[in-house]
Amino acid sequence: MRMGLVGRCAVFTLGLAVAACGGGGGSTTMQAQPSLSSIALSPLTADLAPGATQQLTVTGTYSNGTTQTLSASSETFSSSNTTVATVSADGLVTVAAGASNGATVTITATDTASGITTAAAASTVITVTVATASGPPTSTSIAAATATASTNSMCTAIAALSGFYWEIGNAGGALASGSVGVDPSTGAPIVSSSRVSIASASKWIYGTYVVQKRSGVANLTAQDVSFLHFTSGYTNMGSDTQSATCTQPASGNDSINYCLTLSGPNGPFNGVNQSHVGVFDYDSGHEENHAGQFQPEINALDTSDLGPAIVAGLGLPNTVTLRYTQPLLAGGIYASADDYTPVLRGILSGQLLMHDALGTSPVCAWTQGTDCNAAGSPIFTEKWHYSIGHWVEDDPTQNNDGAFSSPGAFGFYPWIEAGKTYYGVISRFYGTGQGTQNGVDSAECGALIRHAWDTGVQQAGTIPNPN
Question: In which domain, by residue range, is 1 found?
Answer without folding.
Answer: 1-32
